[in-house]
Amino acid sequence: PEPLLTTQLHVLLCSASGLSCTVDDKVSRYRTLLEKLPPVNYVTLRRLISHLHFIHQQREKNLMPVENLAAIWGPTLMHVSTGNEANWSKRESEVICDLISMYPKLFSVDEEELIKEQRMLEVLEKYHNSHQIPKPSGDIKVWVYITSKESGNCFNVSVGPQRDAGDVCQELCYKMNVYGHELCLMESVLNGALIRPLHHSEKVLDTVLRWGYWDDADCKENCLILVFNTIFRDIAAIAKPPIAQCGPLKFADTKSKAFKSYIFEFSQAKLVYYKDKNGSVKLGEWKIEDLVWYIGHEPKRNPHTRWAITFINKNNKPKRSKENPYFGWTLAGTTRDEQLKWMAAFLIGEFAHLDLLPKPQMDFLK
């Protein structure tokens, strides 16, 4: 049968892939050739390449970068029966690789369509992060460091959709010669600037896959660390539901390096901040179920306080830009007791129906 990229254009497209020219010149050459396709072929190709470009954008999660997609689809879309198919295969893959990579320019994709695709990505991410929907994906291997990344002591652990942080602690507890319930799995991001103790019920796979939506510079040093469960123990002593917290804190959003003082309130699983002490003007509000929060702040902005908590939206990619150069929103305060109270409020709001500490396990691994 005739391929989607017709036989008449086969040699011309393969030649275009090998041109030594600017990206714009190559786009122009491809565009001229694709306009020679029959209308049905052209429309079908545009929709298919749009879909493949969409898959490529999620490459950190699905392990299907443009090169892998092109290797599969090149021979399918451009096959020729000349008896020399093996020699053409590489060039065909290069053509499809170019078409996927250049998709927005090649097909003059407008802003409305790009926004639509971004919304689709957000919906998929929200679906993936939902604990209410079973995920059929298989296990992946992750490295877990023991006590600290600097120790260099790490072990490969298999995590699937249903495996939680408590399971990993139980599997590796013999490495630290303690019971699993005495340990905590810690998420370390931004090269250790931000850390987050995972609740024992949290799905480890969700945490690891979330990194795939971040900018490369923000996730390249991310890791999981097995540590003693001191943070949750400190918090558990004061975390008695229902719990609310209110008071002045320093705050900086994704646009600001400088911190300003506002009144913050956490109640009914919502974080709210106000312009003045009277609480007459609400400036922002977040549901705790939509947030991922970390202890610490990125080094580029320092609140000059004893503690800080940085949080991001769980369902949106924390993408930096010229207008929003900083990672997440950051709260900052002065005393350790104050920090523990805010963290206790967050945890009770997020895990209201679960114990903060895991139940003791007596089946200690030998």
TrEMBL record:
Mind listing the UniProt keywords for this protein, alphabetically?
GTPase activation, Signal
UniProt signal peptide: 1-21
Question: A GO CC term?
Answer: cytoplasm
Single GO biological process annotation from the record = signal transduction
Fetch the PROSITE patterns from UniProt.
Answer: RHOGAP
Q: Where is the Rho-GAP domain?
A: 1-107
From which domain of life does this come? Eukaryota
Under Gene3D superfamilies, the record lists:
Phosphatidylinositol 3-kinase Catalytic Subunit, Chain A, domain 1, Pleckstrin-homology domain (PH domain)/Phosphotyrosine-binding domain (PTB), Rho GTPase activation protein
What one GO molecular function would you report for this record? GTPase activator activity
Q: Which PANTHER family match?
A: RHO GTPASE ACTIVATING PROTEIN AT 15B, ISOFORM C
List the protein's name.
Rho-GAP domain-containing protein
Q: Which organism is it from?
A: Clastoptera arizonana
